[in-house]
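Q: Predict the assembly, please.
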Amino acid sequence: MTASLTVADVMHKPAVVVPDIITLAQASVILDAANVGAAAVLDSQGRLIGMVSERDLLRSVGHGVDPAITKVDEVMTKDPVTVSVSDTVEHGLEVFRERRFRHLPVMDGDKVAGILSIRHVVRVAHIEEVQPAGSAPPGLAPRGLEGVAVAETSVGDVRGEEGFFHYRGYNATELARRCSFEQVWHLLSEGELPDDAQLKAFTRLAVEARSIPEQVADLLPKIASLPGYTPLMALRSAVSLAGAALEQQPTLDIPADEVRRECLKMAAIVPVLLMRLHRHHLGLPPVEPDPDLGYAGSYIQMLTGQRPHDREIRALEQYLILTMDHGFNSSTFTARVITSTGSDIGSALTGAIGALAGPLHGGAPSRALAMLDAIGTPDKAEAYLRHEISSGERLMGFGHRVYKTDDPRSTLLREVATELGGAQAEFAVQVERTALRVLNELKPGRRLYTNVEFYAGVVMNSVGIPPDMFTPTFASSRTVGWTAAIAEQAANNRLIRPSALYVGPQPPRALPEGYGAALKSAELAR
Ligand SMILES: CC(C)(COP(=O)(O)OP(=O)(O)OC[C@H]1O[C@@H](n2cnc3c(N)ncnc32)[C@H](O)[C@@H]1OP(=O)(O)O)[C@@H](O)C(=O)NCCC(=O)NCCS
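A: Predicted assembly structure:
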C-alpha cells in the first residue's frame, strides 16, 4: 500500500515556514498555532535553509539559551535532507530510518510544498501491517534493524541528528554536569530523581548491596587465571556465577519490586567483581570497597588501593553517568530479549556483557589513546592524520553511526579532560582540532565529528584506569542502563520472537535417492 502512495498524499500541507530572522519565542508561537512539530526555515529570498523543530527549541532552552533574543538560524538543522512531492512514502520511511529525523521538508521543484512527519509515514505503514495486501510477502526489516522501533521504553532515547540523548526525559549531559552517580542511578532504576531522604536510603542500599557471595569470591582467582583471560570475559563468567549463588529466580515468577532489588544488587556488585578479577589477574590482593565512598570513588579505590582525589572521582563520575544508557543499543536489546523469555537477571546481564564484548559495540577507547601515542607530538599530527586517511584508515574517536553532529558525550568529556588538565589533555585538544580540519578536507560531506571514545580514554587514563579496563568501566556503568531495561521489560513483558524471511532452497526438498540407507544397515548390524 505504501508503495502506491506518494509523499504528497500524506504530508502536512501547506508547509509551515518561518523566516530565519525570527526568534525562538516567535517560532514557538507559529508551531503552536499550526499544531505541528517542525517548520521549514527560509532565507530572505524564500530559499530553504533549515528545519526547526519543537525539540530544537526545547533543547536550546534547556541549554540556557534565551528564546526571546536567539534567532532560529542559530538552533535549526542546517541544509536539511529533503524529499520530493513525487517520492513514494516508502522512500520517505527509508530516509527517516537512515537519518533519524522526525520531520522532512517536501520539495516541489525549489519550493517547500509540505512537511513530512514520521508520524504520517508510520501511520500509513501501520495500516498496511494490520491490513496485509492479499498474498503479498511479509516485509523484511532493514538489516541491522536500523530505524525499526521494536519496543516502547521510558528509560531514554538518542536523537542522533540533534546531538542529544536523555534519560527519562532529562538531558543526559546536564545530568552528568549536575548530579551524582547515585542520583542518576536512582532516576534510571526507580523512575524519578530522588529527594534528599530517598537519595540517602538508596545510597545506603547500594553500599550494602556491594557484598559479593562468598562462593563467588572463592572462584574469582580461578577465573582470573584462565589462559584466555580478558576483563570482560571474566566479568561475564562472574556475573553468571553470582546469579546462581544469589539463587535468582526467573523474572516471570517474581514481583516487580523484587526484580528491582535484584537489579540493584547486580549493578552494585559489578564493579566489585571487576576490580577483584583485575587485581587477582595481576597477583594483587583484593581491596574491599570503602562504604564512605560513592560508586565512582570506590571504583578507583578498589582498583588502585588508594583513596582518589575528589576531582578524579568527579571526572570519572561524569564519564560513568554519560555512559549509563544510550538508547536501544545491541546489548540493551540483548538484555531485553533474554528477559522477555522470563529468564533471570543474571542471565540477561551475562548476555548483555557478551554483546558489549564485541568490537562493533564495546569498541575500544584504548585505540583512540593509542593513536595519540602513535602521533607523539603536535607537530606530527597533521602528517600522521593525512597519511592515515589517505591510506584508507579510520581515525579512532571520530565518526558515529547515529550522531551526524557533535556527539554530546565527547563535548562534555572534552571539558572534563581539560579541567583535569595535563599534557595529554592539551595534546588531545590539538589533535582533535587538526583531525576535524583534515577530515573535513579529505572526507567532505561525510559529517564526521569527535565521538565519545576520543576523550574517554584521556579521562580514564588521567584518573588511573589502565587501558584494558576502559571497556569494562563502560560495562560497569552500562549495567545501570541494562538493569533499568530489564526491569522495564519484566514489568510489561511479551516474549520477543520475531521471524526471518526464509531464502534457502524451495521446500519441501526430497532426500537424495537411497540417502540414509547406510545408516539403517549400520543400525541393524548393532
Ligand atoms: C563509528 C563508525 C564505525 C561509524 O561508521 P558509519 O556510520 O558506518 O560510517 P561509514 O562506514 O558509512 O563511513 C562513511 C564515510 O566516512 C568515512 N569515515 C567514517 N569514520 C571515519 C573515521 N573515523 N576516519 C576517517 N574516515 C571515516 C568512511 O571512510 C566513509 O568514507 P567514504 O564515503 O569515502 O567511503 C566509523 O565512524 C568509525 O569506524 N570510526 C572510527 C572508530 C571509532 O571511533 N569507533 C568508536 C565509535 S563510538
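DSSP finds 22 helices and ten strands in the chain. Residues 243 and 346 are 5 Å apart (CA to CA).
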